[in-house]
């Protein structure tokens, strides 16, 4: 089942976020993850969290952040993270999460949805392409503040 996360999902989400962080090589600690996670669980103005649940166990999640763009004509969504436990990959869970996210974004008058994926991750790019996402020529840059 794919559903929006609730505050009671905090500990299970922290475990999943830690797994994503380790896999991505960022190795963020619990306090760092809590700083980003707790406000989103309690305030949809910041974004949305979706979880994939199998037999009362959270096996994946997606994080959606909000933005606003003149070019987009209004509200934008950024699929910031999608993660599925390795033991449950290639079962269609990632596609189900993204499909549920896109369906929900319509309720928020979202004009466009963006996502970021790593250049060295062809499996995720293939999934996103199969779900109708297109590669852009834009290059993302960042500066930590």
Write the layout of secondary structure elements.
Elements lengths: L1 E3 L5 H15 L5 H13 L4 E8 L2 E13 L4 E11 L8 H13 L6 E4 L6 H9 L15
Parallel strand pairs: 4-5
Antiparallel strand pairs: 1-2, 2-3, 3-4
Helix pairs in contact: 1-2
Description:
By secondary structure, the chain is of the alpha+beta class. It has one domain (2-114): Gcn5-related N-acetyltransferase (GNAT) (Aminopeptidase, 3-Layer(aba) Sandwich). It has helices spanning 10-24, 30-42, 93-105, 122-130; strands at 2-4, 47-54, 57-69, 74-84, 112-115. A hairpin with a 4-residue loop joins β3 and β4 (74-84).
Order of helices and strands: EHHEEEHEH
CATH superfamily: Gcn5-related N-acetyltransferase (GNAT)
Can you give the mean pLDDT? 94
Query: CATH architecture, please?
Result: 3-Layer(aba) Sandwich
Low-pLDDT residue spans: none
CATH level 1 class label: Alpha Beta
Task: Based on the model shown, name its key terms.
single chain, 145 residues, alpha+beta, Aminopeptidase, 5-stranded mixed sheet, 5 strands, 34% helix
Write a brief structural summary:
By secondary structure, the chain is α+β, with helices and mostly antiparallel strands.
């Amino acid at each position: 089942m794919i559903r929006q996360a609730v505050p009671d999902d905090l500990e299970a989400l922290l475990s999943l976020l830690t797994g994503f962080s380790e896999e991505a090589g960022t190795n963020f600690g619990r306090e760092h993850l809590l700083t980003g996670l707790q406000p989103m669980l309690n305030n949809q103005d910041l974004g949305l969290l979706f979880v994939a649940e199998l037999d009362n166990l959270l096996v994946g999640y997606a994080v959606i952040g909000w933005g606003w763009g003149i070019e987009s004509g209004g509200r934008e969504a950024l699929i910031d993270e999608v993660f599925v436990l390795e033991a449950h990959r290639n079962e269609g869970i990632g596609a189900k999460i993204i499909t549920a996210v896109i369906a929900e974004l319509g309720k928020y008058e979202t004009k466009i949805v963006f996502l970021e994926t790593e250049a060295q991750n062809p499996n995720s790019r293939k999934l996103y392409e199969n779900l109708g996402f297109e590669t852009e020529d834009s290059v993302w840059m960042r500066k930590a503040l």
